[in-house]
Specification:
single chain; about 375 residues; mainly beta; Jelly Rolls; nine-stranded mixed β-sheet; eight-stranded mixed β-sheet; about 10% helix
Length: about 375
């Protein structure tokens, strides 16, 4: 197990991807035409201070983020709208989920320009852009920029169709995803299966109610989100001070944005002996992207506040379907063919490292109810409601 300082991941300056320019890549060609910086990395200390370049289409500045391998099921775009500024109207055949990092403003949506709907947002708001719907952003402040992160399905869509006109000028209307008579951006929604919230707009994701999820352990709470009938799935998870979640794995490209928490870290590895383990420190504003299929990752709250994150990734939910279904393999032990390492099966060094991190800040480990060799307290039980 290697978790020394050399393994701690830091955000890098914008870089160009390694690429064979003799092979056409419609997605990378589009980025080059947009003239926006491309960052190839999977850990970012603070999205609020990430260096951006000019992006006229988006109304100010921006950068596009890819994970550093060939498995790119999605990308993320960090965009800053200038004070008093607005983006150019656009629509496209890839899906988009938005989380507002700072500032306030409004977004207009429409299929028919005569039937526009507009809703307001602020830092902490989370919403979806319906597939191929027209949209435009407006900064509501004349003195401060507004910044958001968007997770999109642009890479596979552009590489599948290989035609800008089809992707950006397609007239097809997905009326089932955006209805002018539907009040779908008011913040209201419907709860399914006791934990799946279907809504196009969450006014304040850092404080939205969550529900018990004992399967992931250590008093964690969670809400699965279904938004705009998109295939990019989302969930929000929170875990208490002095605890950590069970290690698990899934496909690449899950973007984890820390919504609250003052100190913590994640461990990521692929090899069974964990010789390739790396550590990424985090706090509110940090983003970590699971870089490859089968990457095991585990999240630890070593700070003094509850830790909450938003996860956005491509594909169907896998864990919960809004209208039925089961929990699948996401919360099933690897011993039984699932994707999760149970506490009793993890290496003791994992817990020893966590206790050492807590000791640095004089905090108590609250994992005694789950880890027999824990030297701390049974501070939390298997589940909590809020």
């Amino acid at each position: 197990m290697t978790t020394n300082d050399a393994d701690i991941i830091q955000a890098k300056e914008p870089t160009e991807p390694l690429r064979d320019f003799s092979i056409a890549d419609p997605y990378l060609d589009w980025i080059e035409r947009e003239g926006v910086p491309l960052i190839v990395d999977f850990a970012f200390e603070d999205l609020n201070t990430l260096e951006l370049g000019t992006w006229e289409r988006k109304g100010g500045k921006g950068a596009i983020i890819n994970i550093p391998n060939d498995e790119i099921p999605n990308d993320s775009q960090v965009v800053e709208i200038s004070p008093g500024g607005k983006s150019e109207p656009e629509h496209h055949m890839y899906e988009t989920q938005i989380y507002v990092l700072s500032g306030r403003g409004a977004t207009s949506l429409w299929n028919d320009e005569k039937e526009k709907s507009t809703f307001e947002w602020h830092a902490g708001s989370l919403f979806a852009i319906p597939l191929n719907a027209w949209y435009q952003f407006f900064n509501g402040s004349g003195s401060e920029p507004a910044r958001y992160i968007a997770v999109t399905s642009a890479p596979p869509i552009m590489r599948l169709y290989r035609n800008d006109d089809f992707v950006f000028n397609n007239p097809y209307v997905f009326s089932e995803r955006l209805s002018p008579n539907e009040d779908s951006y008011s913040g209201s929604g419907t709860l399914y299966n006791k934990r799946v919230w279907e809504s196009n707009f969450v006014p304040n994701a850092p404080d939205m109610p969550l529900f018990g999820w004992k399967e992931r352990g250590a008093g964690g709470v969670n809400a699965m989100l279904e938004m705009a009938k998109n295939s990019i799935n989302l969930h929000i998870s929170e875990f208490p001070v002095g605890t950590y979640k069970k290690a698990h794995k899934h496909g690449p490209g899950a973007h984890l944005v820390l919504l609250s928490g003052d100190a913590g870290y994640s461990l990521l590895w692929q090899k069974d002996d964990r010789s390739d383990m790396v550590r990424a420190n985090w706090k509110a504003g940090t983003m970590i992207i699971v870089p490859g299929a089968g990457t095991v990752h585990q999240h630890f709250n070593s700070g003094t506040r509850r830790a909450r994150y938003l996860a956005m990734k491509a594909g169907s939910h896998g864990l919960v379907k809004p209208y039925g279904g089961s929990y699948g393999t996401g919360s099933k032990s690897m011993k039984d063919g699932g994707a999760q390492i149970e506490y009793e099966d993890e290496e003791r060094e994992i817990h020893s490292l966590f206790e050492a991190e807590l000791a640095k800040v004089g905090a108590t480990c609250n994992m005694k109810a789950f880890i027999p060799w824990c030297t701390g307290e049974a501070g939390v039980t298997s589940e909590r409601d809020t």
